[in-house]
Specification:
The chain is mostly beta strands. The protein has four helices and 40 strands. Strands 7-8-9-10-15-14-13-12 form an eight-stranded antiparallel barrel. Strand 3 and strand 4 form a beta hairpin. It is elongated and about 135 Å long. The model has no long low-confidence stretch (mean pLDDT 86).
Length: 634
């Protein structure tokens, strides 16, 4: 790709255009900013120094996106209070253009979008405001007042003399992004998508090894004189001195002191700054460390956050609290949050549902190492966590920004192995918010097996009751308490056919606030063999204190086992203080209830212990949340 050629009006050096449509360019010899009028160039300013480098991309870098090749022909660099970023001007093989944004190793490609109505003024926006842009729904995540930090290469407009520019960055639930640029009287909308650095197939990049060798340098803290190493000085904005806790300006030649911390408590990091470890198949270098705290009901809780970097994946975090570790990835898409008034909210990300765990104000207590954005001791953000073990979805909100991240619980031994740390990790204390249950798979399998086995036992019982149990005979009788001897009754004779089986003698009565007793003899009419059993039936009821009560039952069943086939008669000898009407029914091959109850017991007890253990674990997890399962009153 090539465009016209001209000579710089300031120094006379040749100026080659990569893009025929360029309006502005920068002379690479004398740094003059040139405006193009056909083939004539007009000097309108001068770059005092090249804009700060924010990535390995440079002019002339080539890549591929959406099936088309592109070339990087220009750049606008911005800085703001939390860091800096670059907007690289891309020209595609078909002549179309776009912008590749890189900010703290997050990359996105955007183009000018369409709006039915002008976007709201920046003073009307705040994080969380939703709006429809370019036919899609977005939410504001960041409002930035940035300072122009320089230009280089070819641009489609005149841009060299801008000072302050306001931007509103928005994200969608589907992973899209939008930026409203308020640099002109009429705001400009850019819409696009996040892209993977490795997926762009970039060539002509700065050599990472040569860059790193050039970057690494050691300076002295101007506050305490301690040695401060900068691993990525061209991208580092702030550095925390590991000796005195001062926050230093990495962009200044002598590391100017931005913040002195009185009586700083410097925590000892478990992973040394500068250490390189392999996590999830990528090598990460630890650059910085923050110790942060929250206060809940007067109790202060603290945890550490390690900032890590990988050239392809960008920045990641490791957090550690009481021996519990999480690997944390910044999110590019917004979760869907469904708050509940006065209750526990829900958040959904990629179809996975998370329960709200806790909301608190997080404060930065100390900082060591380097960061590509501004940090200060005392920085505060409202942090809200949602959990779906082993993952945790977290948001941090300030007046100007809302950021989301996804953490995944990581066993401490994996951290020690990844970074080759000496000794053994400390044993985790308690149960952490997104710590997985010790044996979730075993509990689920045992639950499935237990429920399936219980279903089989109940099904067999019902089938035996419905299709195998047989009613042989039955009759109604009356017991006269005044002449008990004359109340002796006989049922039968009747036949019990087939194999030996159990026989149930079922009795129903009308007893009320009294008792009734029967002795029965099951007599084999042919052999004289006898089987006897005695049963008491009692039922009492009444009212006490305005409430009804009852005890006992008006019915009973006696079970005789292994009764051989034959011709039988049942002799009944009743007794009791009151007249009673009763019925007796003879059934055979009745399912023995206790056997099935025992079977259910042996099946359900292990499942019950497993569920109880799981509940205890979950209760311990949620005890530290805003929504405990078991309260102190319970």
């Amino acid at each position: 790709m090539s465009g016209p050629q001209a000579n710089c009006p300031s120094c006379g050096a040749p100026v080659d255009f990569r893009w025929a449509g360029a309006v502005q360019t920068t002379c690479t010899t004398c740094s003059s900013i040139l405006i193009r009028h056909d083939l004539d160039l007009e000097k309108v300013g001068q770059v005092s120094q090249p804009p700060p480098r924010t990535s390995r991309i440079q002019l002339g870098t080539e890549g591929r996106h959406d099936g088309k090749s592109f070339t990087v022909v220009g750049r606008i660099a911005y800085s703001w209070e939390r860091g800096g970023w670059s907007e690289w001007h891309l020209v595609y093989s078909d002549g179309s253009t776009a912008w590749l944004s890189d900010a703290q190793d997050e990359y996105a490609i955007t183009r000018v979008g369409a709006t039915e109505r002008p976007p709201p003024a920046p003073d009307k926006l705040r994080p969380g405001v939703a709006m429809v842009l370019d036919g899609k729904r977005f939410e504001v995540v960041t409002i930035t007042e940035a300072r122009y930090a320089g230009v280089e290469g070819e641009l489609p407009f005149e841009y060299w003399d801008h000072e302050l520019v306001t931007f509103a960055d928005l994200k969608s639930h589907e992973g899209g992004l939008a930026t409203i640029d308020y640099s002109d009287e009429t705001p400009t909308l850019f819409v696009g998508e996040y892209v993977d650095f490795g997926g762009l197939g970039l060539t002509g990049l700065l050599d990472p090894e040569a860059q790193q060798a050039q970057d690494v340098k050691t300076l002295s803290c101007p506050n305490c004189g301690g040695s401060v190493s900068l691993l990525r000085p061209t991208e580092t904005v702030n550095v925390g001195c590991q000796y005195c806790g001062s926050i230093l300006d990495a962009a200044s030649p002598g590391l100017d002191v931005l913040q002195k911390v009185q009586n700083a408590k410097i925590p000892k990091t478990k992973i040394p700054l500068g250490a390189v470890g392999t996590l999830r198949g990528a090598d990460y270098q630890v650059l910085g460390f923050q110790f942060r705290t929250i206060t809940v009901e007067g109790i202060k809780y603290g945890w550490g956050e390690y900032l890590m970097h990988n050239d392809k994946n960008g920045f990641r975090y490791l957090s550690e609290y009481d021996g519990h570790w999480n690997y944390i990835t910044p999110l590019k898409s917004l979760p869907e949050v469904r708050p509940k008034l006065g209750g526990q909210g829900r958040a959904t990300l990629h179809g996975e549902m998370f329960k709200q765990f806790q909301t608190a104000s997080a404060r930065t207590a100390s900082v060591v190492g380097e960061f590509p954005w501004e940090v200060r001791v005392g920085d505060k953000a409202i942090a809200t966590d949602y959990v779906s073990p082993p993952r945790m979805l977290s948001s941090e909100m300030t007046d100007a920004e809302t950021s989301w991240s996804l953490g995944e619980y990581t066993e401490p031994r994996r951290i020690w192995k990844a970074f080759g740390l000496e000794g053994h990790p400390s044993r985790p204390i308690g149960v952490f918010a997104n710590q997985p249950s010790p044996d979730p798979t075993g509990t689920k399998q045992l639950r499935k097996i237990g429920l399936a086995a219980s279903g089989v036992i109940l099904a067999v019982f019902l089938l035996r009751t419905m299709f195998f149990a047989q009613t042989v005979t039955g009759a109604d009788f009356r017991y006269n308490a005044t002449t008990p001897d004359s109340s002796v009754a006989v049922l039968g004779p009747f036949e019990l056919e087939g194999r030996p089986s159990n026989v149930q003698i079922k009795t129903r009565t009308n007893v009320s606030n009294t008792w009734f007793y029967i002795d029965v003899d099951l007599l084999n009419v042919d052999t004289g063999e006898r089987f006897s059993v005695g049963r008491e039936i009692s039922y009492y009821h009444g009212r006490s204190g305005g409430e009804s009560w009852s005890e006992g039952s008006r019915k009973d069943g006696a079970l005789l086992s292994s009764i051989p086939a034959g011709r039988y008669a049942l002799r009944i000898f009743p007794s009791g203080p009151s007249d009673v009407s009763y019925s007796v029914t003879i059934r055979r091959d009745v399912p023995p209830m206790m056997m099935y109850i025992a079977a259910l017991f042996f099946v359900l007890v292990p499942m019950g212990f497993s569920e109880a253990r799981r509940f205890k674990f979950e209760a311990a997890r949620w005890a530290e949340s805003d929504f405990p399962i078991v309260s102190e009153d319970d």
